[in-house]
Structures are given as C-alpha cells and as structure tokens.
Amino acid sequence: MTETKEDKPGGESTLTVVLALLVNLAIAVMKAVAGLITGSAAMLAEAAHSVADTFTEALLLTALRTSARPADRRHPFGYGKERYFWSLLAAVSIFVSGAVFSFYEGFEAIFGPTVEQESPIIAYIVLAIAFALEMVSWTQAVRQTRREAKEQNRTLFEYLRHSDDPTSKTVLFEDSAALIGLFIAFAGIGLHQITGSQLADGIASVLIGLLLAAVAYLLSRTNRGLLIGRQADPVLVFAVGKRLRAIPEVEAVVDLLTMTTGTDSVLLCARLDFDDSLGAADLERACVRIEAELRAEFPELTEIFLEPVPRNDPELRARVLARYGRELHGGAGQ
C-alpha cells in the first residue's frame, strides 16, 4: 500500500491517534483514582472506558505502522488490510475491556450491597477535567474527518459511511462516546448524591456499557466488511466504468470487479469486449495504454487487470447477472 502523508510519522492520522492515546491514558488514571475514592460504579465504568480507549489507540498506532509496509513476495498486494485487522481488534478491545466491565460494575451496584458515596466533589472535578481533555482529542478527530470529507466532496455522514480508512473514524466514534459517557456518569453520580440511592449510579454504569457495546459493533461491522473484501467506493467504480466505455477500442464493459486492499488502495479487474478488428499486437498496446491512463487518472488503483472477453459468452453473462442482477454494458454504477 502506498503510504500517504497522513500516515507518515508526524502525519495527521498519527497525530490524531497519539493525541487521543495520551489524553485517554491521563483520563483513565484520574477516573480510576476518583472511582476508588468515591466508590462510584459509573466513575469506575468510565475508568474502564478510558482504559479501553487507550488500548484502542495503541492498536491503531500498530495498524498505521504495519499497513504501510510495501508489497513483497508473500503479500504481493501489500499489507493495507492490516489496518482493518488491528482496527477490528480495537473494536473488540472496546467491548471486552470497556463494555463488559461497565456492565459488571452496573449490575453490582444495582443488585449488590449498598456502598456509601464519598467525596462526590472529587468525581465532579475529574469529570470536568476529563471533558476538557476529551474535547481536545475530539476536536482534532473532527477536524481531520471534516477535511477528508471535504476533499472527497462529501458530507461528514457520507464520508463515515464510505471511508476505507478506519483510523480517524475510530477515534471520532470513541471520543464522541467518551463525551456522552461523561454526561451519563455525571448524571448518575449527581442522582446518587441527591437521592442517596446507588441505583442511579448503577444504571449509569449499564448505560455506559451499552454505549461502548454500540460503538464496538459499529466499528467491527465496518472493519469486517473491509477485511473480507469490500467493493471500492461506488463513486470510483462508476467513474472507472465511464472512463473505460469512452475508450475507442472498447465496445463494452462486460464485468468490473474492484476490491479495497487498503486505505486509498484498490484492485481493479475489468473484463472488456474490444473491437474485433484489433490484431494481437494492437490489443496488447491498447491494454498497456489503458492501464497507464487509468493509473494517471485514478491514483487509488494500485493493481489493474484488463481481460479481453466476448460480451455474448453465456457463462460469463450468467455470472455477471448473478452478481449484479443486470449486465454492465450501459453503466458501471453497481
């Protein structure tokens, strides 16, 4: 996979992840101390939340480093999918070390013995400091994500839906969940102080667990799709198909296969029905020229395979129809 400027040491993706890691590590320590002092289940759940986020950032740093390795004999298409593997482990980390512990603390507070709340002011101070620090990390993640969405002429929602880079998306999701979790913890501790019942504290811890489980599910679903071989961005697929049909030697685009092999890295296999009047040498030269033109126009295409095929081959037509429900002669928007 080609290393982008955002992935290089000191690049924006690395800066976003490192900043989030340092912030979450500091917050985790503060929350753990406050949770032990106050006896608040919600505060301990938030400490687990920050610990999970810290593990997540460490895994994302590993993803950025390992996925940038160049292709070799054992991995001829590069190591781009390593980013999705480590990001998937990050999602699992959020669930195991964050959500499960939060559920445990919550149910213990709801159904277990009563624990007196002590020094709630400490919890409020820690939550306020944590909110300020989380806002720093969240602002950086939002800034990067918006910039990348603008570069692709997309809304933020569209970018998060179609992006093949899980790094900034993961940081943005977990930081957003962290800010929401702080409000939930504040409410739980406040209601505990007002009512004298730890039920609200326990419910707050369970809600934090549900929040983390939801984030873990969203991230794992995204990375699962990329790991098993998701089609490239439909906008890119449509543009490539349109470009191929505009080539004089090409009479029809019979099949167009793409797979995301890493961030900004796409494998393309195009089955084309060429003009029958072309000789073997003309066909070879056309394929070489077409590949060069596609690489120049679409830098994301790191591997390109062009296969001359007849459009009326019944077996091939059956496979195309089974995959897309129609033939692609008239358009590549799949």
TrEMBL record:
Keyword Transmembrane: yes
GO biological process entries: zinc ion transport
Membrane topology classification: Multi-pass membrane protein
Cross-referenced Pfam families: Cation_efflux
Gene Ontology CC: one annotated term: membrane
Positions of the Cation efflux protein transmembrane domain: 17-227
Alphabetized NCBIfam families for the sequence: CDF (TIGR01297)
Protein name: Cation diffusion facilitator family transporter
